[in-house]
Amino acid sequence: MENHKHAQKVVNHMMEHDRFSQWLGIKCLVMEAGKSIIQMQVREEMLNGFGLIHGGIAFSLADSALAFASNAYGRLSVALECSISYPAPVNNGDTLTATAEELSLTNRIGVYQITISNQQGVKVAFFKGTVYRTSKEYFK
């Protein structure tokens, strides 16, 4: 239980200082070391010229899920490499849920899979991220 409280403290600290995640309207649903579930609603200013979500918005949602899951251990972790696929379109007003799951963790590297689904459970994006785990701790 202590690890869960620490993870929540780290993520709360991150959200307080992450203006972009705040702009996205992210709500943190599950925050654990190695796992996060976050949610946001697509707004009109997030759409591209085709009236669909701009790919950078979905990428940013997944990137935030990656950051919360990997940093929740309490060590500053930064992205090394990320990739994303968009198998289905996202529309204005859709509610997106990003679920980050840890695939591998070593002392220095973490690998995560983030799946983004819409309110109907349709998987709209798959994101894979690798982070470098620094030795810097958030709270000692």
Overall CATH architecture: Roll
Q: Taking Cα atoms only, what radius of gyration do you get, to the nearest Å?
A: 15 Å
How would you name the oligomeric state of the polypeptide chains in this document?
Answer: single chain
* Shape estimate: globular
CATH class: Alpha Beta
Number of strands: 6
CATH homologous superfamily label: Hotdog Thioesterase
Strand content: 35-45%
Q: Any low-confidence stretches, pLDDT <50, length ≥5?
A: none
Biggest beta sheet attributes: 6 strands, antiparallel
Cross-sheet strand order for the largest sheet: 1-2-4-5-6-3
Short description, anyone?
With 140 residues, the protein is of the alpha+beta class. Helix content is 28%, strand content 42%. Strand 1 and strand 2 (35-41) form a beta hairpin.
Protein traits:
140 residues, alpha+beta, Thiol Ester Dehydrase, Chain A, six-stranded antiparallel beta sheet, 3 helices, 6 strands, 28% helix
Please give the structural blueprint:
Blueprint: H1 2-17, H2 19-24, E1 27-32, E2 35-41, H3 55-71, E3 75-85, E4 95-105, E5 109-117, E6 123-137
Antiparallel strand pairs: 1-2, 2-4, 3-6, 4-5, 5-6
How would you describe this structure to a colleague?
The protein is α+β, with helices and mostly antiparallel strands and 140 residues long. The chain has a single domain, classed as Hotdog Thioesterase (Thiol Ester Dehydrase, Chain A, Roll). The chain contains three helices and six strands; from the N terminus they run ααββαββββ. It has helices at residues 2-17, 19-24, 55-71; strands at residues 27-32, 35-41, 75-85, 95-105, 109-117, 123-137. Strands 1-2-4-5-6-3 form a six-stranded antiparallel sheet. A hairpin with a 3-residue loop joins strand 4 and strand 5. The longest helix has 17 residues, at 55-71. It is globular and about 45 Å long. The protein starts with a helix and ends with a strand. The mean pLDDT is 94.
